[in-house]
User: What shape does this take?
Amino acid sequence: MPDDNLRLRVHDTLSRRNVRLDPRAVRGRKELRLYVCGVTPYDSGHMGHAFTFCTFDILVRFVEASGVRVRYVQNITDVDDPLLERARRDGIDWRDLVARELAVHFRDMDALGWRRPDVMPRVSEEIEPILRAATQLHSRGYAYQSDALYFDVSRYPRYGQLSHRTRRSMIRKLREESLLGTVGPGAKRDSLDFPLWRSSAPGDPAWPSRFGDGRPGWHIECSAMAMRYLGEQIDIHGGGRDLAFSHHESERAQSESLTGKVPFARVWMHTGLVRYEGRKMSKSLGNLVHVSQALERAPAAAVRLYLASHRYGRDWEFSWSGLAAAARLAERLRVLLAGEPARGVPAGKGFARRRQGGSPPYIDQLGTARLAAAGRVGPKRGMSPAGRRLRAQFSAALADNLDTPRAIRVLRAAVREGEAGAARWMLSLLAGNASLS
Assistant: This one.
């Protein structure tokens, strides 16, 4: 049953503490306001993206199951350097590139059963509020114009606190990401200053402004969109850990400078990075495992369970054997919830890749068909006292900083005990609408 007393604690990057969420009432009902940095649609989505978005999907579902409304905004950065560079490289209009890659993104995430965010604003459609925010920062003395309109970091003494970096560390990371820019006459005053509005390269999208025709800087886009759809202060700002600096650090600085309200976000929640073959999974390194590749080898619910088997705030290594284990759990769940015979043949120790034209290896090694044959499971089985006990343990795990590995251990216990009602509810939070087959 819904619980109006949300007892969820999550880790706040700024304070380095687990913080209890206490959403405020909106029109007589508590509402949690969540903003998550979304995709830059210039390449197909990979498991690192899926890990972040599925983590916040679990968060949203758990909060809503507790009786608290969630207002969820996730942006689409359809105007950004990497995207425009890819469009030029491929000789394609940037808008066509965006349309193609967004179609893939939504196909993948819908297959993974996510609850789509309530609002998914696109930068290209939000230029007016973005430019208004940049103009206000300039008029209030927080920005200056030279070869671009820059935010003056010296006006925000708390810069660096969110990411817990020294000045030297911040400059080093900007240099590594080719974001350092030029300091000097006719350029920016300080290495840490960042653009709010900049000129566009020939052929790139540009909009008129008092600062010259151009386009927004990366950081101001999210500040403006978050405040437009969620207000000047939000409950959670989320994204991958690699965004803590410089993106979220800069967002915090310009947002709090713009409104004078502190904090901009009550919690900064960051997901860990996914590695593959020993390195961070990234487009630039070319070591991606695409969502579509994982879905060729396992049911969507198994992919979700595999992602949820890792603590959201920690880095982890993707492995096909880990996905295989999740596929076996998904098969046991399918049998438990449907009362159908188990499919497949003994899998052995390995998890064979799906061959061209072959069937996906959805293998059950654990004999769950015997439970169905004994009449202990089925789609109409209700919630027993044991099921309610397991459900309480599951909720306690998620309330404890979204401890999804612990929650999955409770789910496994529900499967072992044949508690279909409890297992069905747990699966709905961990895997959303993702298919078990």
User: Anything to note?
Assistant: The mean pLDDT is 90. The radius of gyration is 23 Å.
